[in-house]
Inverse folding.
């Protein structure tokens, strides 16, 4: 049995491979892929060759725990259906719609322990947003927004939009977002932002001062651009919190720490979904956070964020589109209907 797999062969080069699947062993299942999501953050660092060397892409995910070097596979969000079960696998798994933290490929063999069963009432195109929704949930847990607070979110890519959608459910004083692209600013307003501004506007700081006279209580830096962190610091008010959710890879950030930051007791907080904040870990587990993320997938209309559905046979075009025309994309999905198995 053959499968199609996506391979990062070198920077800016994507290839399709054909592999023979091994025989199904006892305790294993065969998953036929339906769709997978391309990360415009981490995957673009990999596509451009900007990921840091000697750092595992994700130590908590077995498929991504090795040190990356070209050529290699990558992917973090795949939804498929179990089409065959090996001996000893409970029959309840047969035909089950499942989610996997798994590279882009048309089929794969794994164990049920490596999969998450998609809950009832959630379809494949909703389920593929699970990692980014979990990340957005984690950002809110780490930022701990309070009633009446003024909150700014820098970056309205898919993670930024999901974070904004969750923040909009809080009784905040004001929620303001920033993004370079009109498509994303319009979507930000649609999910509940009070206003969404262009960070390149010459009068941006004056606009923000009018919106947040005392500075923002809470700022999220989710743009993936290191220079945006300096802007985030300038927007934070006294004792404000800045949540850094971006992964910059090899890109470095140069910060102005001599003025507002030095006197204002601003807190810089790194937030990464692979762990639970220590102050919450006594009561929260990853399983509990997943339960919240699944529920938010039911409540937030995530399918409207899908801007392109591209067959895996055209995967190179998908990455070129995200890299060269990001103003036209929010979430790009790879589909596998016509891929051989």
């Amino acid at each position: 049995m053959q499968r199609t797999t996506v391979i990062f062969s070198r920077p800016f080069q994507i290839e399709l491979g054909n592999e023979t699947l091994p025989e199904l062993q006892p305790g294993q299942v065969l998953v036929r892929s339906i769709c997978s999501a391309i990360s415009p953050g981490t995957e673009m660092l990999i596509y451009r060759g900007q990921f840091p060397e000697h750092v595992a892409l994700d130590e908590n995910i077995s498929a991504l725990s090795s040190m990356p070097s070209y050529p290699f596979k990558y992917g973090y969000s795949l939804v498929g259906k179990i089409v065959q079960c090996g001996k000893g696998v409970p029959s309840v798994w047969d035909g089950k719609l499942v989610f996997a933290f798994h590279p882009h490929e048309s089929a794969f063999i794994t164990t049920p322990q490596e999969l998450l069963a998609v809950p009832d009432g959630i379809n494949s195109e909703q389920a593929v947003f699970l990692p980014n929704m979990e990340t957005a949930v984690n950002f809110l847990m780490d930022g701990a927004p309070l009633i009446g607070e003024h909150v700014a979110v820098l970056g309205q890519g898919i993670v930024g939009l999901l974070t904004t959608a969750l923040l909009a459910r809080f009784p905040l004083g004001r929620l303001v977002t920033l993004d370079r692209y009109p498509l994303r600013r319009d979507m930000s307003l649609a999910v509940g932002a009070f206003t969404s501004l262009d960070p390149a506007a010459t009068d941006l700081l004056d606009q923000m001062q009018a919106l947040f006279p005392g500075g923002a209580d809470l700022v999220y830096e989710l743009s993936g651009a290191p220079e945006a962190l300096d802007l985030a610091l300038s927007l934070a008010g006294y004792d404000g919190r800045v949540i850094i959710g971006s992964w910059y890879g090899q890109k470095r950030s140069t910060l102005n720490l001599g003025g507002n930051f030095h006197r204002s007791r601003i807190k810089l907080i790194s937030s990464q979904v692979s762990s639970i904040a220590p102050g919450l870990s006594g009561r929260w587990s990853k399983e509990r956070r997943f339960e919240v993320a699944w529920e938010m997938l039911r409540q937030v209309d995530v399918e409207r964020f899908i801007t392109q559905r591209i067959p895996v046979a055209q995967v190179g075009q998908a990455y070129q589109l995200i890299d060269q025309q990001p103003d036209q994309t929010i979430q790009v999905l790879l589909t596998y209907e016509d891929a051989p198995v």
